[in-house]
Amino acid sequence: MSLTKAHQQRLLALAKNSIEHGLQTGKPLKINLADFPPELAGRRATFVTLEKQHQLRGCIGMLEAVRPLAEDIAENAFSAAFRDPRFPPLQAEELDGLDIHLSILTSAEPMAFTSEEDLLAQLQPGIDGLILEEGRRRGTFLPSVWESLPEPGQFLRHLKQKAGLPAGYWSDTVRVYRYRAEVVT
Fold first, then answer.
1. In Å, what is the CA distance from 171 to each residue of 74, 121, 137, 155, 164?
2. Complete domains list, the chain, with CATH
3. How large is the average pLDDT for residues 27-50?
4. pLDDT at 1 over 80
5. Among 39, 48, 108, 167, which is disulfide-ready with 76 (CB 3.0 to 4.6 Å)?
């Protein structure tokens, strides 16, 4: 589902408003879904990525669609700004120059492959987001990560490390799911 430019702008404004509300109150913005068109009220999984001078400043999201789209954006924008454990909470003076990127995900589909080489051959750089699972370990990379890891082998090695596995790890029990994202900036 592609969003209209007006809907994209509304979601970006919502993300910024939730961050501003968080700076003032310490809480995410509560929204009334009746204020949003049906296209923004359906359940969707999203990630909100914050960047400052092209450097990651926070990224939080959901892989499963558990909340209405507008609500998910408001919650994830707040969490990316204030709850990403990799960064201190955002400060008011950081708001100027903060770039907000929204990723609206499709449902994840399991991939069928016979080996690591077979999996690598199926990957679509710049298009696929991946979820890798092995036992209780799990990691995901949004499609935008291809910008910094453009080669499929490199992308997969780093994803394994993100999931807490060695870069060269492989077993027949590895599960991989593919999804796509509509990016709004």
1. 38, 17, 13, 17, 14
2. 5-105 (3.30.700.20), 109-180 (3.30.1490.150)
3. 95
4. no
5. 48
